[in-house]
Amino acid sequence: MISNLQQAERLYLLRHARSGWAEPGSRDFDRSLSDAGYAEAELVANAAADREYRPDLVISSTAKRCRQTFEAFSRAFPDLEDARFVDELYNAPAEIYLEIIGATQGVRSLLLIGHNPAIEEVLARLCGHDTVGKTVPDGYPTSGFAVLDAKDNSWGLSDFLIG
């Protein structure tokens, strides 16, 4: 399964920015970014643009906070054209994320916007638990942006940004 991911040369894993609490009577799925989350999303998107971490394709959860995080990236990369929103990424285990990534073909760089704990588990499966422990010892933060590069039939973490 993981070897199928080698179709992309670079993989970006982004956990959505900080969200507010669910309003009474509303669903978790519909939670918006908090004011701090909007700022985080802009910071990480601009940092990614400054380092020229431009994805060829974005696949994002359909949850509101993921869509709002993506909007910051669409402002930082105004020519970003290919974005797909996938219901299955919401509340999904890492296996679903890996299946979706593995089914992606013909792109050099892929940005995946999703949720924890799945994003952290995907990073651990691709780069190893030791790498995760050293990189994000307190857990994968909101607006955490991992840059993974394919190397010799495996993945290596080459950068990690926090908004």
Automatic annotation (TrEMBL):
<dbReference type="Pfam" id="PF00300">
    <property type="entry name" value="His_Phos_1"/>
</dbReference>
<dbReference type="InterPro" id="IPR013078">
    <property type="entry name" value="His_Pase_superF_clade-1"/>
</dbReference>
<protein>
    <submittedName>
        <fullName>Histidine phosphatase family protein</fullName>
    </submittedName>
</protein>
<dbReference type="InterPro" id="IPR029033">
    <property type="entry name" value="His_PPase_superfam"/>
</dbReference>
<feature type="binding site">
    <location>
        <position position="65"/>
    </location>
    <ligand>
        <name>substrate</name>
    </ligand>
</feature>
